[in-house]
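Work Package 3 committed the consortium to producing structural models of liganded targets before the mid-term review. Because experimental data for this complex are still outstanding, the team generated a predictive model from sequence and the ligand definition alone, so that downstream docking and mutagenesis planning could proceed in parallel. The input record is reproduced below exactly as it was submitted to the modelling pipeline, together with the SMILES string for flavin-adenine dinucleotide.
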Amino acid sequence: MRPQGSKQMTQVTVIGGGLAGLACAVALADHGVAVTVVERSDRLGGRASSWREPVTGDVVDIGPHIFHSEYHNMLALLERLGTRDLICWQPGKVLSLASKPTPTHLRHWPLPAPLSLGPSILGAPGLGMRDYLSMAPTGWRGMRFGEEQVAGLDRISGLDYFRSLGVTEDLIDWWWRFASMVVTNVPLERVSAASLMRIHAQLSGYRGLHFGFAKVGLGELYTEQATRVVERAGGRVIKGRGVAYLAGRERIEGVVLADGTHLPAQQVVSALPPQDLDAVLPTRWRGRAPFHVLPRFEPSPYVCVYLWFDRDIKAERFASHLWSPERLNYDFYDLSQIRRGWRGRPTVIASNIIYSHRAHHLSDAEIVHRTVAELAEIAPRAARARLLHADVHRVPMAIPCPTVGFEGMRLPAQSPVAGLTLAGDWTRTIMPCTMEGAKKSGYIAAEQVLEERGVRARLAIEARMYDDFAGLVRATVPGRSIP
Ligand SMILES: Cc1cc2nc3c(=O)[nH]c(=O)nc-3n(C[C@H](O)[C@H](O)[C@H](O)COP(=O)(O)OP(=O)(O)OC[C@H]3O[C@@H](n4cnc5c(N)ncnc54)[C@H](O)[C@@H]3O)c2cc1C
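The resulting structure, written out as tokens with the ligand in place, is given here.
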């Protein structure tokens, strides 16, 4: 993979061994750069990590994660690391929604994008013709949506935006409150209309877009493999030792670890979440533009629940509750239908309590009790099955909240400090804060580091033009940008 003519280059430190940091380190290693990755935790992977659960011996993730078929950057990394076939795709059914009294199964019909999911929703209980007709303006705006509209829409909330488009309150409650929570991790009244519309446009604009899940622990997809690539290029991965602060005055000179060790570096990539970057900035940079925005990023916390049952409870592989103010859990995953070699085992369920403030006062036992009850609404046998074991993961931040104004706060890879490059899902990737966004940010940062060394490389993959009717409409927008 090393490009011809490039020579061994040294002295790049990447801070943070999550997806963004490891993706950046792999890309640099592939260009002959010996990188030092510094990760504070004993485990690599950050918010997309996994570990062996001590009681059951099963590998669990920090919380269940979804991939989708337009994750081109993420899938390119897995391809590079030889693990792309470890994603279990669900091409037929997109998702089952626990609408009452009957579930709504979202499937693609043989219709052009963005219409293919429409027929699945047409029969949904609780919605009528007025609600369906009120979808039309949002569908039209979704097809026309592109990055040139982000600054304008970032100033208003998703709720205000949909009301201004005449979407009925029933449809807002049925679909948009749910969609906002599960895809942006923020309630509809707080989400940036730009952040939500970007995801809406993407999910509806591509023909047959479908979801996938890791057949192994998330971290098993990339952490050890990335470490090997870095080490083969002469670099190293330091775990269990955090960076205390960045060293340098006018330009970066390296990092100082919490134990006082000084690691000199000509270039440093921060692949840290905003609050962690803020904590390691020297006082002369902290609070100054553009870093003054860092404390304003608000975490969206999660509680993730893992349940081991004594029998097969006949759950769906992937199902979700719709929005309601009292509800704890949204998405449920039956890992026995996902993990490699688990078929035939008694059911193991993972679920997400998103934007989980409403669960924080509850004990683990109360969370487990309510999660089993909410699961039983979807898979009634859960109520009669014996729960053998449960795990509750309290995650302080799944992603930074894309609230109103969020898109405008995201910082570009190039920082004003010479030699300091920024990466992480929250940076300006023109993508949502996801594994795909984190991965793309790592590639953008690697491009920046290489460019400073006189090497031009195109690593990050941009979103492609929407398909079918959605693509035709998008193509007519004057002055359009990606896609
Ligand atoms: C429960 C949950 C569910 C999610 N669901 C999905 C999903 O379905 N689909 C999807 O695409 N995305 C999902 N995400 C989001 C996705 O995991 C993140 O967007 C992505 O992993 C962020 O990667 P990152 O490298 O930018 O940041 P991180 O993973 O946070 O990496 C930053 C790393 O820096 C380290 N660090 C911090 N401070 C220091 C320091 N001072 N010195 C050294 N190291 C330091 C941290 O330990 C961490 O390892 C989910 C996240 C969670 C938590």
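Reviewers should note the following from the model. Residues 93-209+465-475 form a domain with the Guanine Nucleotide Dissociation Inhibitor; domain 1 fold (CATH 1.10.405). These observations will guide the Year 2 experiments.
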